[in-house]
Amino acid sequence: MSEIVVGYDGTKGAKAALDKAVEFAKQLGDRIVIVFGYAPGGYGGGEVPTHREAVKEMGEKVTQEANEVVTAAGVEHEIELVNESGAEALSDVATQRNARMIVVGSYGESPLKGAVLGATAYRLVHVAERPVLVVPV
Amino acid sequence: MESAAVPAEAEGVAPGDKGLKTGALGYLSNLVIGVASTAPGYSLAATLGFVVAVAGMGVHAPAVMIVSFIPMLLIAAAYNYMNKADPDCGTSFTWVTRAMGPRLGWLTGWAIVAADVVVMATLAYIAGVYTFLLFGLDAAANNLLDVSIIAALWIVVMTWICYVGIELSARTQFFLLGMEIFALGLFAIVALVKVYAGGAPPGSIHIALDWFSPFSLPGGSTALVEGVLLGVFIYWGWDSGVCVNEESENANEGPGKAAVMSTILLVLIYVVVAVAAQAYGGLEFLRHNKDDVLSALGGNVFGSPLDKLLIIAVLTSASASTQTTILPTARTTLSMARFGAIPKAFGKVHPRYLTPDVSTLTMGAVSLVWTLIIINVSQNVLGDSITGLGFQIAFYYGLTGFACAVFYRKELFKSFRNFFMAGVVPFTGGAMLTYIFVKAFIDNKPVDSAYSGGVFGVGAAVAIGVGLLLLGVVVMVIANFVYPQFFRRKPETVDPGILEGTVKASASVESD
Hints:
The structure holds two protein chains of two kinds.
Chain A: E1 3-7, H1 12-28, E2 31-37, H2 48-73, E3 77-82, H3 86-97, E4 101-105, H4 111-117, H5 120-127, E5 132-135
Parallel strand pairs in A: 1-2, 1-4, 2-3, 4-5
Chain B: H1 20-24, H2 27-38, H3 40-53, H4 61-85, H5 92-100, H6 102-134, H7 138-141, H8 144-164, H9 170-197, H10 220-235, H11 239-242, H12 254-288, H13 293-302, H14 307-338, H15 357-377, H16 381-407, H17 416-444, E1 454-455, E2 458-459, H18 460-482, H19 484-487, H20 497-500
Antiparallel strand pairs in B: 1-2
């Protein structure tokens, strides 16, 4: 049984991605792996662990929403919280599991804003070793 | 069949499992970040003139650069050891809370935040002035209103950058720091060549061995301590380099060593540039241009347009410093909130940017208000702010030094190395900073000692530095009633296995 890795952070794009992933999983009979990368950005200056802890807690909360959606859809799944930033987390989990594909949402932002703020999807396309599907909002 | 939420734990992804990324942020990166965080270009621009201008300093500014480095090196050892025990890197707030109890810990957190707010004003002021100088708008650079506007804009933009979590890649940091050091180095070389080969202005003086001696200041120990209090500020920030450990190759060892190395590298930069500036410009010139020494000298040494190189170096250095100031401080308040020491809201993380948004925006807002007030109260308040900052930095670095000795107290007598490195060295650092704090307090207390006169019957530097700490004590007393849970915490000691190497330290700070 193959797996579909989906990035979920609770944003609109993530919800669209999750819906698409569920749709594919049902058709292909795949499992879903919901991934949230909780490494905080920024270097240095300390108190990084508490920052990470805070982000992780948030990840636990939002992935719980995703859990409910996928459970309701009756698709087999699991949740992975990874201590890496978004794109790396998705890419690494997908590679480890030799996933069929990675599904992420776009934030629906302008390309410039995305480039400045570091859109996960954009970065993922460059680092991923598995196929990537980007779902528009 | 469903497998419910089973988070694959962080432990599975230990540092070292991350392949390329881990290599990217190794020893050298820690070093670069440590040096970049202290912002040598900007620190020199803001401080060198004031060090020279200290009454009774004479030609001994280079000596002050060296002497200020000693307590910092000792405290770096404290960071190194606290880092071993807590490699996931809390910082002073977490460490002092664990080692010396919640009250001193809380005050440490307050001092970090206060220092950050105060430094934002000086940072923004320098950024404002140098922005105008970059475009040759010298008149605007001297206009308080114009500088205030740019300074305010600067703070807003930097806060926004930290809020949305934009960060420079390690490579960009390398580049910027490289350029900064290149500009400073070139400046020093050209200035010295001109001093000895001719071409320097009439005020220039030749280097003498006496410059490096801290024992022959005309103003004696009073002038020395005053200088060191300013000097403490220029070394401030290297702790950022200690705390990137998560990404570094050997979390328990690498960052601490990088912190020590970065301090040594900094002392070299500061001494060399101070010597060159003083030899070229002479004392009178530096005193006269104490607000922006580097830009004033740059025009002379390089001539147009090369002098812009130095201005750009200072500006990039100030911007890097803002980044390594706002986020860590926002993290300190985030940490305090999660410890239950301040309102919960500060512990909030932005869902999209994953940054501590409430903390960051509050920091930005408070800094903005402070900056606008302080810049407009007096033109001279810059110098007093830096002296005031020295108090706050000396306070929390000093406590960190003591915290290390206290935290390791049960291990100290197990070996000479433990006794010396985890006990004597950090404690001495703490004691030195305490001495500087007390002596500078006595010397700066009179109203007439400050550039900008007095506030509340004391010198402005003391009002800013010690006044804000006292305000912290008052707020802490109130916090005692609001957050009794936090203030009931008991001090801990280090796990005996850490120094023996039998226990691998892990971040184990429960935010109960």
